[in-house]
Amino acid sequence: MSIKLPENVRKRIKQIVYVRSFRARICLLILLVGIVPSVLLRYGILQAYENRAVEQRSATVQNQLLVVAKQLLSNNYFATYHSDDVSLSASRQVINAELETISNLYEGRVMIIGQGCKVLKDTYGISEGKTMISEEVIKCFLGENTSHYDAENGYIEMTTPVVATAADGSSAVVGVMLTSVSNASIVGILDVLNQKAINLEAIMIMVIVAMALFLSGVLTKPFKKVTEEIQKVKDETSEKALSVPDYVETAHIVDAFNEILGRMNTLNDSRQEFVANVSHELKTPMTSVKVLADSLLAQENAPAELYREFMEDMVSEIDRENRIITDLLALVRMENKTQELNIVSLNINDLAELTLKRLRPIARKKDVEVVLESMRPVTAEVDEVKMTLIMANLVENAIKYNREHGWVKVILDADHQFFTFQVDDSGIGIPEESLPHIFERFYRADKSHSREMGGTGLGLAITKRAVLMHKGSITVTSTEGEGSSFTVKIPLNYIADT
Hints:
Radius of gyration: 51 Å
CATH superfamily of the largest domain: PAS domain
Oligomer: single chain
Shape: elongated
Structural class: alpha+beta
């Protein structure tokens, strides 16, 4: 049977498990860096002491056993073990007494093993006369000393060979001393050291915890300050730019936030200006229509010619209103980031020829010559409708804002990455102070002339948006009274956003 926890409890457990707080993570990191090394250091010191103590104890016992081994040889212990000679028996008793002393001193056991692995002496008195066959004893008879520490059972076991040297200089192992000594004294000292180390470690842990809490608070304070400053901006209680230069990271965060805040303020101002401009632009034609209608109503028995003239003016204003709404809708659609381009591989030369063919009747009315110069064949991946819009807007503006008997030159060129569509004209030009603003919505460098030409102030904004949708760029140079030059640069191969 499974128990299902409430959602809020599970969320709380998840928060605790993952320690989502940055301060908690810093605190945990300091604790780990402080406590783990101290624990490892304690175990390392105790292990090193234990190994050193075992080595020293083994060396001390081994030295004493080597002395006994010499006595065994000098008293011919192995050859005369069963002899009844009283002098030999007395020497054996002395050696046995020494072995008993070593056994008692080190709380261990000593066995002397002769040829055939027979136990000649056992300080415990339980294995004498028996055969001791073990790997350690056999290795020792072959001349290899062994030493083994069994920490779990609490003893050190070692073998000491008794080597006899013949008159010709040769040597042979005639016996083995198998010794086991207790590690009780080592364990006792280890317990004392361990307890002292634990007490010291507990004090260190308390100090580390206090430092972790203090340092984590100090280290995260600038981030808390950033949060508080952002909250003030959010609550609209502060309009100042943030400044928290405590860390490089907080400075970067604050700089990024200030940049975003500046863009938001600019966007907000732009929206307010856009709404105001839209209201003004849409209201102006309606006001003109109302004035014309009121004028007709105020006149009794107005002639039909006057009615016709006023109606033509009203139709003209309604057409202007319709153009503004159409351009606004086009701009809004293009600014919608979810809108996708209908990309096709297109012959740009043919598209430019077709666009100019449609606009030449307008140019002939003002006696403006329109010329296309194609430097090379150009094929690119573009949206045909929007590319036509770009070309038509730029060329139509060049015709509208030109002089009589002027000219418009369209230059089409390409390299291995981009193609360029350049429109030069001999028109009225754009004032230098207006150049940075001509792509803004409803901006007009010459408002009176623009209204005469029927412009809505949205054409260049729509053109720039269409260019940006193609990952391209548009630039302009102009001299007032001499003409302008617009250059559009678009990649030959369209790369969609991933």
